[in-house]
Amino acid sequence: MLNSVKLTQYSTGGGCGCKINPVELKNIIKGIVAGSEFPNLIVGNNTADDASVFDLKNGKLLIQTADFFMPIVDDPYIYGQIAAANAISDVYAMGGKPVMANALLGFPSDKLPAMVANAILKGAQNICKSVNIPLAGGHSIKTNEPIFGLSVTGITSKKHLKTNSNAKENDIIYITKPLGTGILATALKREKLSRKGLKNLIKYTTKVNTEGLIFGKINYINSMTDITGFGLLGHLSEMCNGAKLGAELYYNKIPVISEVWKCIEQKTIPGNTAFNYQNIEKKVKSMPIEFIPILNDPQTNGGLMIAVDENKIKTFEKYCFRNNISIYKIGKFVKDKNIKIVQL
């Protein structure tokens, strides 16, 4: 029965590509800011960071995040894995250690059997076990489309906390995964994705960004975030806004998952790509037109984006090489407030 289910055919969107687009979201959350009445709230929604952070006043910080979306793949178990990995990675993006997760499930029980939901939960549990945290409980409602994700709690210290708003001028920008999961997921939904493309989609979206915990302990990493639904440029723009800086991106150094260019030729572009570009278009200068789909592609569980002190890049690269951590140097932060796309 499970083999005959194609979950993507039961949803209008998929993965982080079904996020409310940035333009609409700004209007939705307008005026909704946690203010000074909560002095222990270190990170709220004012910097568009990956999670909220609360000072427990015992030397520890509490990290809290929630993330959910509609199916990005057809297999229920793998869908659960991807959704769980995506949510847990938000804690790692803050330099934190996840400690517990709860499931968030919306399920069309009148259209799909219970065994499908069970498989989704088992996939999520598998990822939770892989990072040694319990899937402790959760909440479910009946919906018209499958929706799944996690609420994740983590901990860190002030010393190890990484935010998306602390980059310094001339910091070097690295990312940890190639781009293109949104494009591959769209090709899958339109039944145009090859087996190799599907294998790569699953490979990158089920990998939890556990290296974020290590990066949190490195003092020459000044800022960190992950690349998800707003695309590389959208999340880089958030880092620039928080640090009051701009950036230079080396488009010829941007890593792209194999098969993505073929999918672009087939015009399998996610709908939110255009909205992502619209949100940052005025800030971006000299972007090659062929890179618009790549740099604005809504990633699901994309890689980390890191700001590294320019004087420590050799040390950082050697450390990552010795510890088998994939990194790609793609640019640097600059004083100019714009984002320039250049060739290195």
Task: Describe the 3D structure.
The chain is built from eleven helices and 13 strands. The mean pLDDT is about 95. Helix 2 runs parallel beside helix 3, helix 4 (about 180-190) crosses helix 5 and helix 7 (about 230-245) packs parallel to helix 9 (about 270-280). A seven-stranded mixed beta sheet has the order 8-11-7-12-9-13-10. The protein folds into two domains: about 1-155, 60s Ribosomal Protein L30, Chain: A (2-Layer Sandwich), CATH 3.30.1330.10; about 170-340, PurM-like C-terminal domain (Phosphoribosyl-aminoimidazole Synthetase, Chain A, domain 2), CATH 3.90.650. With about 350 residues, the protein is an alpha+beta fold.
List the helices and strands and how they pair.
Layout: H1 22-28, E1 41-43, E2 52-55, E3 61-69, H2 76-92, E4 97-107, H3 114-130, E5 135-142, E6 147-156, E7 172-175, H4 181-189, H5 195-205, H6 211-216, E8 221-226, H7 231-243, E9 246-250, H8 260-265, H9 272-280, E10 284-285, H10 292-295, E11 304-308, H11 313-322, E12 328-334, E13 339-342
Parallel strand pairs: 4-5, 9-13, 10-13
Antiparallel strand pairs: 1-2, 2-3, 3-6, 4-6, 7-11, 7-12, 8-11, 9-12
